[in-house]
Amino acid sequence: MSNLPNCPKCHSEYTYEDGNLLVCPMCAYEWTLNQEEETNDDKQIVKDAHGNILNDGDTVVIIKDLKVKGSSSVLKQGTKVKNIRLVDGDHDIDCKISGFGPMQLKSQFVKKV
């Protein structure tokens, strides 16, 4: 069996070659091997409220009191959040806040330390 990459759209492992194209039978996406290498280089750039670029593992500080949906508690301004992880979506920071637990934050409400 050949060692073809997974589909970049749906991550299916059932890709096959059709001439110089790679094809995914699950979502019908077609791409070239060069295109696959270029998309791996393009990473999501997430910036904090002041325009600083955030990376996985950074420490940030919350710049505004944030109400927690579904709870009566509030995350206070100045709360330090260590070892963040960047994810795709509206809330682009995944973290664990000590004394509170796992949380997702929007990058527009934090600043890099």
From TrEMBL:
Coiled-coil segments: none
Protein YjdM C-terminal domain ranges (all copies): 46-113
Protein YjdM N-terminal domain sequence ranges: 4-32
A Pfam family recorded for this sequence: Zn_Ribbon_YjdM
InterPro entries: YjdM, YjdM_C, YjdM_N
Family: Belongs to the YjdM family.
Designated name of the protein: Zinc ribbon domain-containing protein YjdM
